[in-house]
Specification:
Blueprint: E1 7-17, E2 33-43, E3 46-51, E4 65-68, E5 73-76, E6 78-80, H1 95-99, H2 104-109, H3 114-123, H4 126-142, E7 145-151, H5 158-174, E8 178-186, H6 197-214, E9 220-225, H7 232-244, E10 248-253, H8 261-267, E11 272-275, H9 281-290, E12 293-296, H10 298-304, H11 311-316, E13 321-323, H12 338-347, H13 352-358, H14 361-366, E14 384-387, H15 392-397, E15 404-409, E16 412-415
Parallel strand pairs: 1-4, 1-5, 6-7, 7-8, 8-9, 9-10, 10-11, 11-12, 12-13
Antiparallel strand pairs: 1-2, 2-3, 5-14, 14-15, 15-16
Helix pairs in contact: 4-5, 6-7, 8-9
The structure holds N-(iminomethyl)-L-glutamic acid and fe (iii) ion.
Fe (iii) ion (FE) binds near residues 82, 252, 326 and 328.
Length: about 425
């Protein structure tokens, strides 16, 4: 490993980070390491060491840039493990329907919701999707997100899904936030297949999944397993095909109704299961047996006016829990992980330490990146957030404004 520090951040009042390269389950989820009055040295894009200025002296020379953190809190860069980042248009016209109590799935059934974003995404060019994505990712970075999962699922045809995945690939190349791509062609039944469910399932299995795998367009395959969208049986077929083609799997499970999504997630098992608002005891027990990571999305519960997932039960069962934004134009039009972090604390009753693990190490594990990001440890990517806060409780106690002061990505100060 490089021994020259390109950057030394000194005068960090409190560094709070999980450690280890596996997700921390249950009570261990809240066991983080803290260091008072420390410095962090980074070089070649990775962390070199944590310690006093004296302890890090061997890494530092005349070329080392020095940043004074002014005694504030530092954490690992945040990892957003669940977003629908790339799409055309927005859906502000649905706000009035929502205020009149029209349910989310009814809006979809009448050709709106996800299907309205499908029309707008198909109408957008690849360059337009990329241009919009650059702006969105910059806002995420300003709010502390340094790694982010991004799903397709607003194309719903081979060509249009590929366009979205190519936009994600391009975005990964041209801006600082690291992206992990997920294919989600099974996000809704496209209008042209409304009388031929089996035809679309076969298109996914026989054409889209093989193409995505062959061209390495995505690492994960996800599906919306929900009443009126894809059944548990269809989800099993599609995710099994994805796995046979070498894709890792995720599932939007039991978001609104418990239709067997969490049970399936535990049985296959999938790498992660997302939402889980309505997951029952059987589903959670299956996930615990299968070792499936739970990705919970409190900003979606908040925006849709739904209950909050049973996170205390998950943690008691030893299920690793990640918290993510679910950024998308329909059920969570919020780019910042800070709102979900506050909600996880207030509504799930997670401790600040448990939430920190949920948006760093466990989130990294949920997208297959626990070996490279999610903690401040020598050799991991030097992704660090400095907060306008003296300690960890402070960022959970305050809410509604951006509390991030400085963001370092791969050892370079990107936001200051
Ligand atoms: O995770 N639930 C399904 N998919 C997204 C919403 C997508 C949309 O409404 O555009 C979600 O909430
Ligand atoms: Fe989602």
């Amino acid at each position: 490993m490089n021994s020259h520090a390109d950057l030394l951040i000194k005068n960090i009042g409190l560094l709070a980070t999980p450690t280890g390269s596996v997700p921390k389950a249950g009570a261990a989820q809240g066991q983080i390491e803290t260091h008072e009055n420390v410095c962090v040295a980074m070089g070649g894009g990775v962390f070199l060491g944590v310690g006093s200025e004296e302890q890090l002296r061997s890494f530092v020379d005349a070329d080392t840039a020095v940043l004074d953190a002014g005694g504030c809190l530092a954490t690992p860069g945040l990892v957003d493990a669940h977003t629908h980042l790339v799409f055309g248009g927005w859906r502000q016209h649905e706000l009035g329907l929502k205020l009149h109590g029209v349910p989310y799935l009814d809006i979809l059934k009448s050709g709106g919701g996800i299907l309205s974003t499908v029309r707008a995404t198909r109408a957008a060019s690849l360059d337009e999707l990329v241009g919009k994505g650059v702006g969105l990712l910059h806002t995420m970075l300003e709010h502390g997100t340094t790694t982010c999962e991004a799903k397709s699922g607003y194309g719903l045809s081979t060509e249009e899904e590929k366009k979205q995945l190519l936009a994600i690939r391009k975005l990964d190349d041209i801006q600082p936030v690291d992206l992990v791509a997920t294919f989600m062609g099974a996000h809704a039944l496209p209008e042209e297949y409304s009388d031929d469910r089996e035809g679309y399932v076969r298109l996914l299995i026989e054409q889209m999944i093989p193409l995505v795998a062959k061209e390495r367009l995505a690492e994960f395959c996800d599906i919306f397993c929900e009443t009126g969208v894809f059944s548990a049986e269809e989800s099993r077929r599609i995710l099994t095909a994805a796995r046979e083609h070498g894709l890792k799997t995720k599932i939007h499970a039991d978001e609104i109704d418990a239709i067997g999504g969490a049970v399936l997630a535990g049985e296959l098992p999938t790498h992660s299961a997302e939402h889980l608002i309505a997951a029952d005891d059987e589903g959670l027990a299956a996930m615990a047996r299968g070792g499936t990571i739970a990705v919970v999305l409190p900003a979606t519960s908040f925006y849709l006016g739904k209950p909050f997932a049973r996170v205390q039960d998950m943690m008691s069962l030893g299920i690793p829990v990640a918290v993510a934004s679910d950024f998308n134009p329909g059920s969570s039009p919020n780019l910042s992980l800070q709102l979900p972090m506050n909600l996880a604390c207030y509504q799930y009753k997670m401790t600040p330490e448990q939430v920190l693990t949920a948006v760093t190490l466990n989130a990294a594990a949920a997208i297959g990146r626990a070996e490279t990001v999610g903690t401040v440890e020598p050799g991991k990517k030097a992704d660090l957030v400095l907060w306008d806060a003296p300690d960890l409780d402070f960022i959970f106690y305050r809410y509604g404004n951006n509390q991030v002061r400085t963001v370092v990505k791969n050892g370079t100060v990107m936001i200051e």
